[in-house]
Design brief:
heterodimer, A: alpha/beta, Peroxisomal Thiolase, Chain A, domain 1, two-stranded antiparallel sheet, 11 strands, about 20% strand, globular, B: five-stranded mixed β-barrel
């Protein structure tokens, strides 16, 4: 496989934008990305789009050519990928595979979701469709409920505490407050995080990521051509997408995401690195417990010790291995179809040394971890300075 | 999917994990708050179900109660001699 590099990135701010529609958000991110790499729409050879539920949220189907056409991209394959909250991580994985295989040179990968035009109960219902609607969904399981049940079991097996969950939220809000593109740029205290409105016990509103609108895009090319477009290419050193059962009650051990652990193992092998080499990571903190489990599954610490790891400050902005310097899904926001590609943008921003107030010192080797549903899809990407 | 089809009893089990849902999806807003659990059944399968009656915790024994609109409900099982032992 040919080496692949990210040569351009583009994002919209994440937030609630009543005056913006899905297409305009996706087009803004895509055109910013092309501008970043000084590439014109006519040079793009394929468009891969991640979107979870555009048809349910805004009633629009056929989204990939709909968005590409508005950017001036026609006459090439334009395809939408749906893998719940890992939709654009999956689009990115398949785009890298195609460029790596030599099918195309310049591929634009987008991700978008427009969520805030629906009420919270309706959003909750649409998101529940990422689970097994014939089983857990029928019984009344929401996504917060599934992750609450994961949290309860993790607490029971490993002694994880409410304070450890809250430490994730406090850390990510502190980072997001420094991110001009974040949805909720607000520092929160441990006391606030512990006393939030209950959503699904033991999770409070401060354990849950945000319902957001937003889009992100990256442009990829063979590494051998990257310097035609940018002085700061970022190499995709390793990438893997794996899967597991959709229904939580069909997984043997719900305190681990087996698909994440497997994707990490494969991505590390492809990159020729080990977990201990990863300097920083953007992980899928759709709920605080998900970040704790992600750090365990990625091998940053022992199984069951993700809680003490975050509580000790190891993952804070200037800790030994910063996690979610962007603010994560918790503070940056979680327009679900945009999240996977947005994570890639955030890792690339750190590697390029362009993260401003959030810039970390050791930023040559980073990782992005994108999760779909309660662990049925996982995408892990290792990125490094080229 | 689950072991239960909506017509047969899934039998007794143990609570593997649980939560109380406050923020419900649109179709269940009127039910909230409600307790949801994953039950480890004697058959070895697991099933996501609602809890009727007193709230349960991990490790509690539960018995199948009934189906309501196709949703399996379980109830905390009180050991027959529990009143004597307390």
């Amino acid at each position: 496989m040919r080496a692949v590099a990210v040569i351009g990135i583009g994002k919209t701010p994440f937030g609630a934008f009543p005056d913006r529609d899905l297409r305009s958000l996706a087009v803004e991110a895509g055109l910013k990305c092309l501008e970043d790499a000084r590439v014109t729409p006519s040079q793009i050879e394929a468009f891969y789009l991640g979107n979870f539920a555009g048809p349910s949220f805004v009633g629009q189907n056929h989204l990939a050519p709909y968005i590409a056409g508005a950017m001036g991209i026609t006459g090439v394959p334009c395809t939408r990928f749906e893998a719940a909250c890992a939709s654009s991580g999956s689009a990115f994985f398949h785009a890298v595979s195609a460029v790596g295989a030599g099918l195309y040179d310049l591929v634009l990968v987008g991700g978008v979701e427009k969520m805030t035009s629906q009420t919270t109960p309706k959003v909750t219902e649409i998101l529940a469709g990422a689970g097994d609607m014939a089983g857990e969904g029928r019984a009344g399981a929401t996504f917060p409920a599934l992750f609450a049940m994961i949290a309860r079991r993790h607490m029971y097996q490993y002694g994880t505490t409410r304070e450890m969950l809250a430490a994730v939220a406090v850390k990510n809000h502190a980072n997001g407050a420094k991110n001009p593109y974040a949805h909720m740029r607000k520092i929160i205290t441990m006391e606030q995080a512990l006393n939030g409105k209950p959503i699904s016990e033991p999770l409070t509103v401060y354990d849950c990521s945000l319902i957001s609108d937003g889009a992100a895009a990256v442009l990829i090319a063979p590494l051998e051509r990257a310097h035609e477009f940018t002085d700061k290419p970022v190499r995709v050193l390793g990438i893997s997408q794996t899967s597991d059962q959709v229904a939580l009650d069909q997984k043997d051990d719900i305190t681990t995401f087996r698909a994440v652990a497997e994707a990490a193992r494969k991505a590390y092998k492809m990159a020729g690195v080990e977990a201990k080499d990863i300097q920083f990571a953007e992980v899928h903190d759709c709920f605080t417990i998900a970040e704790i489990i992600a750090t365990e599954d990625l091998g940053f610490g022992e199984k069951g010790q993700g809680g003490p790891y975050v509580l000790a400050g190891k993952t804070c902005l200037h800790g030994e291995r910063p996690v979610n310097t962007s603010g994560g899904l918790k503070s940056k926001g979680h327009p679900v179809g945009a999240t996977g590609v947005a994570q890639i943008c955030d890792v690339v921003t750190q590697i390029r040394g362009e993260a401003g107030e959030r810039q970390i010192d050791r930023h040559e080797l980073g990782l992005a971890q994108n999760l779909g549903g309660s662990g049925a899809t996982a995408v892990v990407t290792v990125l490094g300075a080229a | 999917m689950s072991a239960a089809s909506g017509s047969t009893s899934p039998g007794p089990g143990i609570v593997y994990t649980e939560t109380v849902v406050f923020a419900a999806p649109e179709q269940f807003v009127a039910d909230a708050p409600y307790q949801l659990a994953i039950i480890s059944l004697e058959s070895g399968n697991r099933l996501t179900a609602r809890i009727a009656g007193p709230r349960v915790r991990i490790g509690d024994s539960v018995a199948f109660a009934e189906y309501r609109d196709g949703i399996p409900f379980f109830r905390k099982l009180i050991a027959p001699d529990s009143s004597l032992s307390e």
